[in-house]
């Protein structure tokens, strides 16, 4: 009798454990998903200055026409607004680096000038191309204020390629890929300005 009672207790405990696990999973999964979304949003939107937007850009991704560009591909796009006026366009770009794909988030102001660039993922070599992920990153910061016409088209290249831009030390391919991706993004913005900024946008 005691053995049967012991087995029954074990079964009850096992059943309670399974029920508790299912309950926790049911209620914890949405919370975890919400927290992960918040962290991803914070990671992406940290590229924009506080107070420069008052919407939730990631909640309304843009439909990007012809995302395959000359040397890179656009994976996503978002519009930041302030007082219902466009303040920035965020373009999630992917370009082939030395060690594999490099994913960049490129922020472009409504006036077509680069605001900031942030690497989201890469497989570049430690100590070389991986420098692209350093924070702060003076090299990426040097792109701020540039636009499609500043510098002129031929200058959108590394100095060793007769262009205007320095490179990350020892990381020619990483640097070249980044410059090309940024130039692609600016060209795309210029060609699709009306669609990206939306109707009634002000340059």
Describe this structure in words.
- This protein has 203 residues and is of the alpha+beta class.
- The chain folds into two domains: 1-45; 57-197.
- The protein contains four helices and four strands.
- It has helices spanning 2-45, 138-141, 172-191, 193-197, and strands at residues 72-82, 85-96, 101-109, 114-121.
- A four-stranded antiparallel β-sheet has the order 1-2-3-4.
- Strand 2 and strand 3 (101-109) form a beta hairpin.
- The N and C termini lie far apart (84 Å).
- The model has no long low-confidence stretch (mean pLDDT 88).
Keywords:
4-stranded antiparallel beta sheet, 203 residues, elongated, 4 helices
Number of helices: 4
Helicity range: 25-40%
End-to-end Cα distance, whole Å, is 84 Å
- Percent range for β-strand residues: 15-25%
Shape: elongated
The strands making up the biggest β-sheet line up spatially as 1-2-3-4
Output the helix-strand order. Answer: HEEEEHHH
Uncertain residue ranges? none
- C-alpha Rg, in Å? 24 Å
Mean pLDDT: 88
Total individual domains: 2
Strand tally, please?
A: 4
Largest sheet: 4 strands, antiparallel
Computed structural class = alpha+beta
